[in-house]
Amino acid sequence: MNYKLIAVFLLLAFFGNAQQNANRQFIRGKIISTAKDLENINIVNKNTNTITTTEIGGYFEINTKEGDTLQFSSVQFQTKTVIVTRENVTSKELFFVELISLTRNLEEVIIKQYPNINAVSLGILNKSPKEYTVAERRLYTGTNGTKNLYGLNTSISFDRILNGITGKTKTLKKDIEVEQKETAIEKLEHEYDDYILQTKYKIPKDYIMGFKFFLVENETFLKALLSNNKLNTSFYITQLASDFLETIKP
Description:
Layout: H1 3-22, E1 25-32, E2 42-45, E3 50-53, E4 59-64, E5 69-74, E6 77-83, H2 86-90, E7 95-98, H3 134-144, E8 149-150, E9 156-157, H4 158-166, H5 168-191, H6 194-199, H7 208-216, H8 219-226, H9 230-247
Parallel strand pairs: 1-7
Antiparallel strand pairs: 1-4, 2-3, 2-5, 5-6, 8-9
Helix pairs in contact: 3-4, 3-5, 8-9
GO molecular function, one term: carboxypeptidase activity
Protein name: Carboxypeptidase-like protein
Keywords: Carboxypeptidase, Hydrolase, Protease, Signal
């Protein structure tokens, strides 16, 4: 057996693979869908057989290059295959991938609502309780919950101490920020459709989604939008549209 020939072949294969991987780089993207649960969607680079999953909000990061084939799959979405383009790799914008939810037929369900009947009207509570989002409930449980309380004259939550040490509290707070931005994006799409953004604010069609994320990253605008302050929202969106157009100039 010619061991020298085998060794040369293995070296060539090794350096060839190393060179191929050297051309790859990490790109950050986001899943877009009408569904709200965008976490743990599988993403496979079929050229390298590497896999990653989406984070809360549908954000993801994957090592790839122009020409690679990415496959997106999950039990709640139709599988989608995307060929990575040069623009996907070189653009500073997020790499957006739209997924279609799988529809499941259900029998007709009739829900009757009685808005005047609640805990306050029944005398159970003196005033309406604060409504928490999913992320807010998780944070409250992790920092102020009543489970695992210790102490003599005072009660101290063990979960609160543990979460503070492990950094989970910081993660829970970050989840709330992501949830707020997701809510803001939905509100934006309801109040400012793509046509308005293109005609009134002169945002190019291909940059519409990027502009929406640019808006919600601004804390002042986000606060105005979520508080339903339409006057301030309109003022800030005009100002931020001008700033955004400057950033995308070639």
